[in-house]
Amino acid sequence: MLSYSLNIHLICFIGLQLFFFSSISLASASQDTNQDLTQPAPANMAPEAISQAAQDHVTELTREANGTFTITAPNLDNRLRLPQCPEPLSTDIPNKNSLSGTVSVLVRCEPLNWQLYVPVRVQQVLERVVAKAPLPRGSVISAADITVEQVELRRQRGASFASPEQLIGSKVKRPVRLGEIILASDICLVCRNDAVLIKAGNDGLSIITEGKALSDGSLGEQIRVQNNRSKKVITGVVSAVGEVTVRY
């Protein structure tokens, strides 16, 4: 009988212990649930806001540039998870060479120390002189040979011209196809062995004499010319078709 009574008391003791610990666990779980409901997880940065910051940065840089710009930022993956930045995002373009083609914009949240590169597509369109007809080597350009078109900058591979007047009367050094941009390297305003006018002097006095070009030159380039009268060889700057200016 004594053994039976001890067993009953032991079973009751263990039951009370289990009930006590179960109550604590349920209370703790209930408390955790209430905390989750009252304290939601921190918000994430909207991908659209990051893209817009990158696009706005490029737009600001191109505001004073020549031509017409089309600037497009990508739609970032909606699965991107970056904490909401408590301050305005900072933007920069490290190692910027040009604002053409695809430009990588670095977007940073400095307080939270996260950053992301956003590729922004930049299309710059300028008015440029193009060939209205095929131009063979040695031909002299007339107004009928050229026209002005809107051209994307990335098609340009060298110095080009915005005004037809800069080219009329120049000689073609290498063939130019229909619709191609005419580059400075394609023509010479003064060509080797051409007769040229040499304008020499300063702002107050100018002397004009005839000479011969000893090399090809485009607008603004330095070339060597020989004075027909003195036979002296001097260096001047191509200032117009068939004209070289020498400053003293």
What does this structure look like?
- The protein has 248 residues and is an alpha+beta fold.
- The chain folds into three domains: 47-124, no CATH class; 126-186, Antifreeze-like/N-acetylneuraminic acid synthase C-terminal domain (Type Iii Antifreeze Protein Isoform Hplc 12), CATH 3.90.1210.10; 195-247, SH3 type barrels (Roll).
- The protein has helices at 2-38, 47-61, and strands spanning 68-72, 90-92, 101-109, 114-131, 146-152, 171-172, 187-188, 195-201, 206-213, 222-227, 233-240, 243-247.
- The strands form three sheets. Strands 1, 2, 3, 4 and 5 form a five-stranded antiparallel sheet that branches.
Short description:
With 248 residues, the protein is of the alpha+beta class. It has helices at residues 2-38, 47-61, and strands at residues 68-72, 90-92, 101-109, 114-131, 146-152, 171-172, 187-188, 195-201, 206-213, 222-227, 233-240, 243-247.
Largest sheet: 5 strands, antiparallel
How many E strands? Answer: 12
Helix content: 10-25%
* Total individual domains: 3
Beta-strand content estimate: 25-35%
Distance between the termini: 133 Å
The H/E string reads HHEEEEEEEEEEEE
Count of helical stretches: 2
Task: Specify the overall morphology.
Answer: elongated
Unreliable stretches (pLDDT < 50, length at least 5) are 1-37
Radius of gyration from the alpha-carbon trace, in angstroms: 38 Å
Q: Quick check: average pLDDT?
A: 82
SS-based class: alpha+beta
Pfam family, one: ChapFlgA_N
Family: Belongs to the FlgA family.
Domain AFP-like: 128-187
Signal peptide: 1-27
